[in-house]
Amino acid sequence: MTETRAHDYDIDGxxxxxxxxxxxxxxxxxxxxHAWAGRSDFENNKATALAGLGYTGVAVDLFGKGVLxxxxxxxxxxxxxxxxxxxxxxxxxxxxxxxxxxxxxxxxSNLAAIGFCFGGLCVLDIARSGGDAKGVVxxxxxxxxxxxTKDNIDAxxxxxxxxxxxxAPPSDVEAFSTEMTKAGADWQLxxxxxxMHAFTNPAANDPGFGTVYNADADRRxxxxxxxxxxxxxx
Length: 234
Hints:
Elements: E1 3-11, E2 14-22, E3 27-33, H1 41-52, E4 56-59, H2 72-84, H3 86-101, E5 106-116, H4 118-128, E6 135-139, E7 156-162, H5 170-182, E8 187-192, E9 205-206, E10 211-212, H6 215-233
Parallel strand pairs: 3-4, 3-5, 5-6, 6-7, 7-8
Antiparallel strand pairs: 1-2, 2-4, 9-10
Helix pairs in contact: 2-3, 3-4
């Protein structure tokens, strides 16, 4: 039976709160990185679903305990420091991964990370910076490279992408593919036609902004992730 709990942790004197979903015994840990508003029920539910697959799901927090944006403007301000300073972002990611690795419900030798939107960028930066994860999965994530990528990426990479996503246009996809190939990564990219940004979020319904839920892409991408994790930890 799946159990859940909150877990507070400190980084640089600031308190953060994760949501942990587990089955009572240490299991491979799958970190869930949130979209630009912060950790919400959406990410918590993904962690619980991962526990249902036999993993320990850890919905992490990058912004601070209780911080949750309420508007496009607030959300943009929350991610700006991280998008503008990728070295700082990668340092925060390293601290969060170390936190999750030490959880008693997590088999610290077996870690993966998934992320949505801004969280998709985060998990790709874990791979780019040599973070302690066997594999990462980006759902409709931002694809832009940081200033530097490791010469050799060890983590396996899966990108689940809406082809009509205005926040990651085909030019970004091509640049990302070149980046991953140059770094020698074991990478995959699944592109879903007639699909925009935020396609896994049932609340997304703003075609003008480029965020629209797509039930087929949501289902197909989760199945692709399930297959990927099964291969990763099999």
